[in-house]
Write a structure and sequence with these properties.
Blueprint lengths: L3 E5 L3 H14 L4 E5 L7 H7 L3 E6 L5 E9 H5 L1
Parallel strand pairs: 1-2
Antiparallel strand pairs: 1-3, 3-4
Organism: Sphingobacterium faecale
Protein name: Thioredoxin family protein
Length: 77
């Protein structure tokens, strides 16, 4: 993985965190994935270790859970 991936579900906490992350690392360094809209990427997020969103997966594979918007189980419905 060459850049970070920011997973979120579109809630206000997630959107606020998305703006902060993009401002901190730059749009060229992070891929933003709204798993509420792109549901086929939920499994990918789970395999990366994401337990709740918003979360940032670094290029080294570290998962940084930011605040607590929703668990992956909640997002899956």
């Amino acid at each position: 993985m060459s850049k970070s991936i920011f997973y979120h579900a579109g809630c206000p906490v997630c959107i606020s965190a998305e703006h902060d992350i993009v401002n901190l690392v730059g749009t060229d360094n992070v891929e933003v994935v709204h798993i509420g809209e792109v549901r086929e990427r939920i499994e990918e997020a789970e395999k990366a270790g994401v337990k709740s969103v918003p979360a940032l997966v670094t290029p080294q594979g570290n998962v940084l859970h930011i605040n607590f918007g929703a668990s992956i189980a909640d997002v899956k419905g």
